[in-house]
Design a protein that fits this description.
By secondary structure, the protein is mostly helical. 67% of the residues lie in helices and 4% in strands. Among the domains are: 38 residues, no CATH class; 138 residues, Tetracycline Repressor, domain 2, CATH 1.10.357.10. A two-stranded antiparallel ribbon has the order 1-2. The chain is elongated, with a radius of gyration of 35 Å.
Length: 285
């Protein structure tokens, strides 16, 4: 006797009819347990089948995607690195980029946030040490510049972060401007305030201009670290953090301590010229 599905439900077959309608004993071979259960609910499998759940985020997969994305962003730029290319570089399915980071923007945001978190944390730590020993202009400048130089060179000396920033700045992507604002505005305000404490007679506008020029010095060292090394035949190497600090901190301090520029006034000569132009008219009147 065997049961099999019919038009009006399950039928019971006897004798020779049972042999015709019986399934092979091994028809489940090679089928996944879940497929067997879906095909015939009456067939039991030797394993309990748990309900399907989404895979949990894997730290290893996340790190592979972040490392691959950073390499490709540096080599090709943000616009030139597609989601599928990043996934292929990481050796994972491209859909996982959306699963873990909600797309390419999320990948870049996480890469940038990690670098900035390290950079800002070290800056604030060094500034706190400078306050404990008595706030000096040089110590504030070094607290701001040193972590940037260390992060620029990187632990492997490959200038990965500096090249990433240079590439993103060259593309002028709106996302990059947003990331800079989100990750640096608070720490920059803290350092501008500390610089003002060291230079109480310097107007705020002057401090902000000079802080801007200090950022330019760091950025140029980040985007073109090899130029000065090649030009000087190795005499000047931005990769040597201590040597760079010995030169850049006094240079920046001298700039901050220079006299205020003030408001430009018109020259006396220009007034005389104007007077000469107007004098014929006045005589005509």
């Amino acid at each position: 006797m065997v049961t099999s599905p019919g038009e009006n439900g399950w039928h019971t077959w006897h004798g020779e009819h049972a042999a015709v309608h019986a399934r092979p004993a091994d028809y489940t071979i090679g089928l996944h347990e879940r497929a067997i259960q879906l095909y015939n609910p009456r067939v039991t499998t030797p394993f309990a089948i748990a309900p399907w759940t989404a895979p949990r985020p894997s730290s290893e997969t996340r790190e592979q995607l972040l490392a691959a994305a950073e390499r490709l962003f540096v080599e090709r730029g943000f616009a030139g690195a597609s989601v599928r290319t990043i996934a292929a570089e990481a050796g994972v399915n491209w859909s996982l980029v959306g699963y873990y980071f909600r797309g390419k923007d999320g990948l870049l945001a996480e890469i940038y946030r990690r670098h900035c978190a390290t950079l800002n944390g070290e800056r604030l730590r060094l500034l706190a040490e400078a306050r404990r020993t008595g706030l000096q202009l040089e110590s504030v400048i070094e607290a701001f510049v040193r972590p940037a130089l260390v992060e620029i060179v990187g632990p492997d000396g490959r200038y990965q972060y500096s090249r990433l920033r240079a590439m993103l700045a060259a593309e002028n992507a709106p996302l990059f401007a947003q990331l800079v604002t989100e990750n640096f505005d608070q720490s920059r305000s803290t350092f501008v305030e500390a610089l003002g404490q060291c230079l109480p007679k310097l107007p705020v506008g002057e401090i902000l201009w000079r802080f801007h020029f200090m950022l330019g010095t760091i950025y140029h060292s980040a985007s073109s670290p090899q130029r000065i090394k090649a030009f000087s035949h190795g005499l000047c190497d931005p990769g040597d953090v201590e040597a760079t600090l010995r030169h850049v901190v006094p240079f920046l301090a001298a700039g901050f301590r220079s006299a205020p520029i003030g408001v430009a006034r018109p020259r006396r000569g220009s007034r005389k010229v104007k007077a000469r132009v107007r004098s014929p008219r006045s005589r005509a009147k």
